[in-house]
Write a structure and sequence with these properties.
This protein is an alpha/beta fold. The protein is built from six helices and six strands; from the N terminus they run βββαβαβαβααα. The strands form two sheets. The chain has a three-stranded parallel sheet with strand order 1-5-6. Strands 2-3-4 form a three-stranded antiparallel sheet, with no helix packed on it. β5, α3 and β6 form a beta-alpha-beta unit.
């Protein structure tokens, strides 16, 4: 999976975004957890051979991200046949906080529509299970 934190120029994710992908059961093929987001080239996106491209431009809601995703598809910048999914980056991705769990759950739902591949070997895990959090009234899903 490739997550684009920006589209002009394209930026691959850093910080917590690759961890979100992993918790959802995917593999972030561009970007490194805990590092800064990095500028990439469209050739890098193609060479990564993603199953999914998530368009998550920082500061954009779902409608704005969808407009950018539509523009990328229309311009032929993404690999042919790849699933493209736009997210509400402003609400669920760009800010560390409890709402990123909703972003992880949404991403797990997208990944569940794909056939399993060696690049996405794990099942989705809940944030609580992954972090060991056991707050009052917390339920963990497997």
């Amino acid at each position: 999976m490739v997550v684009l934190e920006w589209t002009d120029p394209p930026f691959a994710p850093g910080h917590w975004i690759p961890e979100m992908v992993e918790l959802a059961g995917g593999a972030c093929v561009l970007g490194t957890a805990g590092e800064k987001s990095v500028r990439v080239r469209w050739e890098d996106v193609h060479a990564a051979r993603p199953d999914v491209v998530v368009v998550a431009p920082c500061g954009y809601d779902r409608a704005g991200a969808q407009a950018q995703a539509d523009g990328l598809v229309a311009a032929g910048l993404l690999p042919a046949g790849v699933l493209v999914h736009a997210v509400d980056a402003d609400a669920h991705w760009a800010r560390p906080g409890p709402r990123i769990v909703e972003g992880i759950e949404e991403l797990a739902g997208v990944l569940a529509t794909l056939p399993r591949s060696p690049r996405s070997p794990r099942s989705p895990r809940s944030w609580c299970e992954a972090t060991g959090f056991r707050g009052s009234g917390t339920t963990t899903r497997g």
